[in-house]
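note to self: dont lose this again. the chain is below, predicted strucutre after it. 239 aa total, dont forget to put it in the shared folder this time
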Amino acid sequence: MANIILHKAATRGDANHGWLKSRHTFSFANYYDPERIHFGALRVLNDDTVEAGMGFGKHPHDNMEIISIPLEGDLEHKDSMGHVSVIKHGDIQVMSAGTGIFHSEFNKNNDSSVKFLQIWVFPNRKNVTPRYDQITLNIADRHNTFQQILSPNKEDAGVWIYQDAWFHLGKFDKGITKEYHLKKSGNGVYVFVLNGQVTVQGIDLIDRDGMGITDIEQFTLTVNSQDAEVLLMEVPMIY
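---
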């Protein structure tokens, strides 16, 4: 029988710094909940809004896989490896922090906010050489299906990380039912609803609700509203 952890949107940590509004699914910065430290290898799921012209100054990371998924607007990235880039909706950005990197993230625009998900995954290899990558996906390829955006394999679709994890994004019409089959036995899946209403394992989820599912080989997602968007994060529970 599947084990389920439900995180309704309103129960997330809430940080309002004026220039930054962030909702934390898992313990982060000043938000701490001993019951919500991580879901397996998934350590951070932050839902960030950065006001016009503002951003995160240069700061360090190490031994973490860091994934950014822009939802609205343009996010400018600079790092100690010499990369300068702008990511926007449809792009996926990944950094393997490894032995250590510094980077900054700023809203590229002075007249609108930028919204993005910042996700941290514990790596299965420590002290690797830091690396950076970003790709642009065809958003149409996730219509009524799960578009793979991340995997452990360099040759597969999406970006890759140092972990046996697979991420998928889907955008669905009302009434669609879709099965997801886990890629690796023993993994769990964290379902995060970006928009709309869906049902998973008999539980109704709406905007920004999250649900962790373990001890399963597959599950079914039923879509209850038009243009529902869902992010699936399959990660090892033992890592």
